[in-house]
Specification:
58% of the residues lie in helices and 15% in strands. It is of the alpha+beta class. The chain has 2 domains: 81 residues; 56 residues, no CATH class. The strands form 2 sheets. Strands 1-2-3 form a 3-stranded antiparallel β-sheet. A two-stranded antiparallel ribbon has the order 4-5. α1 runs antiparallel to α2. It binds zinc ion. Zinc ion binds next to loops.
């Protein structure tokens, strides 16, 4: 039983008590208790209604935020799908190669960790990324690897 359920039951019990009390002074005291009890009940009901409204407001705000995020996620997924459809991607020895509008339709190596284009050294060294990732592919191997990609 909650407090809100108990209070009306107390009111009923007090009314029964008033009916049984023969002494008028005692009946008046119980009547006063009943009046105080009604004040408490009214305030508790108002507080409960206010809390319920706050909970509904909170739930509505969360629902609005979720709806906005869902739209943003859907928008970003569309952009990703569009970007991926514009880029061909191949992997060789753990290195990502991309070809599309952004690479001038030529195969270029990219970092599989951070997605940045890999540094192609001037001499025959391993390809590497600014983030610290190192490819197993050496510069001299690039033309042969790219030539084997199926168009
Ligand atoms: Zn990287």
């Amino acid at each position: 039983m909650t407090g809100l359920e108990a209070i009306p039951k107390i009111a009923v019990l007090l009314s029964q008590l008033i009916a049984r009390v023969k002494d008028r002074k005692a009946a008046a005291l119980v009547q006063q208790i009943l009046q105080h009890q009604l004040v408490i009940q009214k305030e508790l009901m108002a507080a409960h209604a206010k809390i319920s409204q706050t909970e509904r407001d909170h739930a509505n705000v969360i629902a609005e935020i979720n709806e906005r995020h869902a739209k943003t996620i859907a928008h970003l997924n569309e952009k990703i799908a569009k970007f991926q459809s514009e880029m061909e991607i191949r992997y060789h020895a753990g290195t990502e190669f991309r070809r599309g509008k952004k690479t001038g339709e030529k195969w270029q190596p990219f970092c599989p960790d951070c997605g940045l284009p890999l540094n192609i050294p001037t001499r025959n060294y391993q390809l590497s990324c600014a983030c610290g990732w190192e490819s197993n592919i050496w510069k001299a191997q690039l033309p042969g690897i790219v030539a084997r990609f199926v168009p």
